[in-house]
Amino acid sequence: MNIQRAKEIAQSPSMASVTYEGVPIYIQNVDEDNELARIYPLDQPENEQEVPLNSLVEL
């Protein structure tokens, strides 16, 4: 996923369908400099992690 699209999704009030390794996730914020996203699985909000933007897939 590119940086601009990830930022749009993170800032949008509506929920987009995005997955990380096949798991539906929520994007909290985007680190443009390092091309990382702070995410968590929809069913595990306590399981936050930073992952490369190119590993995110929009359905």
Which percent band covers the strand fraction?
35-45%
Straight-line N-to-C gap: 11 Å
- Oligomeric state as shown: single chain
Structural Rg = 10 Å
The average pLDDT value, as a whole number, equals 96
- Proportion of helical residues: 10-25%
Largest sheet: 5 strands, antiparallel
- In DSSP terms (H or I, runs of 4 or more residues), the helix count works out at 1
Written as H for each helix and E for each strand, in order along the chain, the element string is HEEEEE
Shape: globular
Low-confidence stretches: none
- Biggest sheet, spatial arrangement of strands: 4-3-2-1-5
Summing up helix and strand content along with how strands pair, one would put the structural category as alpha+beta
Number of strands: 5
Word description of this protein:
By secondary structure, the protein is of the alpha+beta class. It has one helix at residues 3-11, and strands at 18-20, 23-31, 36-41, 49-52, 56-58. Strands 4-3-2-1-5 form a 5-stranded antiparallel β-sheet. The longest helix is centred in the N-terminal third of the chain and has 9 residues, at 3-11. The chain is globular, with a radius of gyration of 10 Å. The chain starts with a helix and ends with a strand. The mean pLDDT is 96.
